[in-house]
Amino acid sequence: MGPFTPIAFITRRINTAMPDPGRMVSASERAHLRVLWRDTRLLFADASGHWEPWVPEPGTTMLVITAWNPDAGNASAADNASADADLHADLADLIPQRIRGAGDGWHEDGWAVPHDPARSLALIRRYRQVAAWVVTADGRRLLWRDGLLDEA
């Protein structure tokens, strides 16, 4: 083993602390998360600030992504807010729409933007998400960080 340097130590810590963003998602992990996310409601804030059901315009395909809770963990409110602000800035040219994914007793705020397969996958990986929703007026599918897209 070579001499200790702060950079080598930091690099080892980063490489061991953060999972590979493109790593395969196991079949059991997919099955577990599909059950958890099956009943997720996608909502948007109307003009009065009330959350209402959201469906994209007919003929469009949208990506719904959050930066909250990377790697399906539990980040602090401050970390989630910071990651969300970074994601919003990355999406600014796409005119993102605020979306909330809500389930039984939980929610995560995110953004809807036009889906482009390469860009969508890069965003999922950059923000360390396990998956994001690809949504049309007819339904939605999960795009996993390893690039697999669930069947309709």
Outline:
The protein has 152 residues and is of the alpha+beta class. It contains four helices and seven strands, in the order ααβββαββαββ.
Strand fraction equals: 25-35%
Tally of contiguous helical segments? 4
Tell me the count of domains.
1
The rough form would be described as globular
How many beta strands in the DSSP annotation? 7
Quaternary organisation of the protein chains:
single chain
- Look at the structure and give the mean pLDDT: 86
The computed structural class is alpha+beta
Strand order of the largest sheet: 2-1-4-5-3-6-7
Low-confidence stretches: 1-18
Rg (C-alpha, Å): 17 Å
String of helices and strands = HHEEEHEEHEE
Q: Sketch the major β-sheet.
A: 7 strands, antiparallel
Distance between the termini: 50 Å
Helix content: 25-40%
Describe the protein.
With 152 residues, this protein is an alpha+beta fold. The protein has one domain (22-144). The protein is built from 4 helices and 7 strands; from the N terminus they run H-H-E-E-E-H-E-E-H-E-E. It has helices at 6-17, 27-37, 77-91, 117-126; strands at 41-45, 51-53, 62-66, 97-103, 106-114, 131-136, 139-144. Strands 2-1-4-5-3-6-7 form a 7-stranded antiparallel β-sheet, with helices on one face. The longest helix has 15 residues, at 77-91. The termini are far apart.
List the helices and strands and how they pair.
Blueprint (H helix, E strand, L loop, with lengths): L5 H12 L9 H11 L3 E5 L5 E3 L8 E5 L10 H15 L5 E7 L2 E9 L2 H10 L4 E6 L2 E6 L8
Antiparallel strand pairs: 1-2, 1-4, 3-5, 3-6, 4-5, 6-7
